[in-house]
Amino acid sequence: MAFFTQDYLDFFIELAPNNNKDWFDENRKRYTKSVKDPMKAFVEHLIEKGKAINPAWGELEAKDCIFRINRDIRFSKDKTPYKLNRSAVLVEGGKKNHSTPGLYFEMGPEDLRVYGGVYTLDKEQLLEVREAIAENLEEFQSAYQDENFLSTFGEIRGEKNKILPKHLKEAAAKEPLIFNKNWYYFAKFTPETILRDDLDEFILEQYQAAQKLNKFFTQHIK
């Protein structure tokens, strides 16, 4: 079952050169019909289907997962008020949880992106993950060298520190990813993918391709 029509993509294509409140207000009914309501229905469906993979998702509601279309322009030079895509995350506790691996996706007229990993960790959590990698090098390397992960996401990305605690330096010489401050991965697909009848299954397949890494991070983050 397809949740989105071509007008989902067309809405954002037309919003791009008209990114202002007046145009948005004039097209608000169209936004509700072609973007907002289908997104809510899709996320509700994905929660129901995905809880067989991750039971913690069964506690979620769509409002816990879907990010606002409004941009945060307080500290940005770009004052256009609206994002040119819709995004959501399925993770225990919802979108306020920034440290547990989940399924994050963005859908716009340029592409569909599916993300995973851990991005925002506090100081204690960061040390926990680094020490976990150092103490379980083979398990960690096996997870990101997994055939499904490599064919879907290719590599682990993330910002790095130049300096590490002394007790991690020996392990970091064997595994440079210990220098990371975050560990995330994503895959891009054509915007037409959003219109697929099996979009739910397709997105869940991408999430499952990183299950070994998700399990590793989940086990070692308190």
Automatic annotation (TrEMBL):
InterPro entries, per database record: CHP02453, UCP028451
Pfam families per UniProt: DUF2461
UniProt-recorded name of the protein: TIGR02453 family protein
